[in-house]
TrEMBL record:
<keyword id="KW-0597">Phosphoprotein</keyword>
<comment type="similarity">
    <text>Belongs to the TTC9 family.</text>
</comment>
<dbReference type="GO" id="GO:0016020">
    <property type="term" value="C:membrane"/>
</dbReference>
<dbReference type="InterPro" id="IPR011990">
    <property type="entry name" value="TPR-like_helical_dom_sf"/>
</dbReference>
<keyword id="KW-0677">Repeat</keyword>
<dbReference type="InterPro" id="IPR050754">
    <property type="entry name" value="FKBP4/5/8-like"/>
</dbReference>
<dbReference type="GO" id="GO:0012505">
    <property type="term" value="C:endomembrane system"/>
</dbReference>
<feature type="region of interest" description="Disordered">
    <location>
        <begin position="1"/>
        <end position="43"/>
    </location>
</feature>
<protein>
    <recommendedName>
        <fullName>Tetratricopeptide repeat protein 9A</fullName>
    </recommendedName>
</protein>
<feature type="repeat" description="TPR">
    <location>
        <begin position="181"/>
        <end position="214"/>
    </location>
</feature>
<dbReference type="GO" id="GO:0005740">
    <property type="term" value="C:mitochondrial envelope"/>
</dbReference>
<feature type="compositionally biased region" description="Polar residues">
    <location>
        <begin position="23"/>
        <end position="35"/>
    </location>
</feature>
<keyword id="KW-0802">TPR repeat</keyword>
<dbReference type="InterPro" id="IPR019734">
    <property type="entry name" value="TPR_rpt"/>
</dbReference>
<feature type="compositionally biased region" description="Gly residues">
    <location>
        <begin position="7"/>
        <end position="21"/>
    </location>
</feature>
<dbReference type="GO" id="GO:0043066">
    <property type="term" value="P:negative regulation of apoptotic process"/>
</dbReference>
<dbReference type="GO" id="GO:0044183">
    <property type="term" value="F:protein folding chaperone"/>
</dbReference>
Length: 240
């Protein structure tokens, strides 16, 4: 019985020994196999990264100045279409998007007139290594003026008009283009409704020089002169 038990135990021991030997052999081989697997994966990752980097270098940049100008012009055109469809709020949003593109480009290119709050759409590295052509500069400046003029036009169509903002946009245009008829006229309208009739009359008369037959300008000049006369009469009565 003891022999059988011993035999069984021996068999079991032999089996365990064989299993243990197998496990030891497996454990002895695992580090080498695992290491080779990791090395292979690492090499594969390196190749993938190099391939990805190479493909990135081959891809054209999407932040070149020409692309920014193109996006600005696209937003401006979309705003104009919205204005024609009397979707004034949507138009305002499109014009602001165009101005953000333009201001961002101006700022990274070192334009001191650009707003410090404007979001940059160009990485600094690209801005330092590229410059705008004269044609691109002209397109950008024209788009900026048109956007400000159009924003003023949109605001004047709103139910509650923000005349202070209308004045602000128009003066931005006049700062760069002093004889812009629309900006002169709308500045006069804004000053009129803000109660500054002397400035209103000045801008309205300047716009009248550009378009002598414009009936809207003539009407606002008459209204403004009437306000000035009434205020003068009132002041005279109060003085006496």
């Amino acid at each position: 019985m003891s022999v059988v038990a011993g035999y069984d135990g021996g068999k079991g021991s032999q089996s365990d020994s064989g299993g243990g030997s197998s496990r030891l052999q497996h454990c002895a081989q695992s580090p080498s196999s695992s290491s080779r697997t990791k090395d292979a994966r690492y090499q594969q990752q390196l190749l993938q990264q190099r391939h990805h980097a190479g493909s990135m270098l081959k891809q054209p940049s999407h932040s070149e100045p020409a692309d920014v100008v193109r996006r600005a012009l696209d937003f401006k055109c979309q705003g104009t279409q919205c204005y024609k469809e009397k979707k004034y709020r949507e138009a305002i949003g499109k014009y602001h998007r165009a101005l953000l593109e333009i201001k961002g480009l101006c700022r990274v290119l070192g334009d001191p007139d650009s707003s410090s709050k404007a979001l940059s759409s160009l990485p600094l590295s690209i801005a330092k290594s590229t410059t705008l052509t004269d044609e691109q500069k002209g397109a950008m400046e024209n788009a900026e003026l048109e956007c400000y003029n159009s924003l003023a036009a949109c605001l004047l169509q709103m139910e509650l008009v923000n005349y202070e903002r209308v004045k602000e946009y128009c003066l931005k245009v006049l700062h760069k283009e002093g004889k812009n008829f629309k900006a002169l006229y709308r500045s006069g309208v804004a000053y009129y409704h803000l109660g500054d009739f002397q400035k209103a009359l000045y801008y309205l008369k300047e716009s009248h020089k550009q378009e002598p037959s414009d009936t809207n300008v003539i009407r606002y000049i008459q209204l403004t002169e009437m306000k000035i006369r009434r205020n003068a009469q009132r002041d005279k009565k109060e003085a006496t």
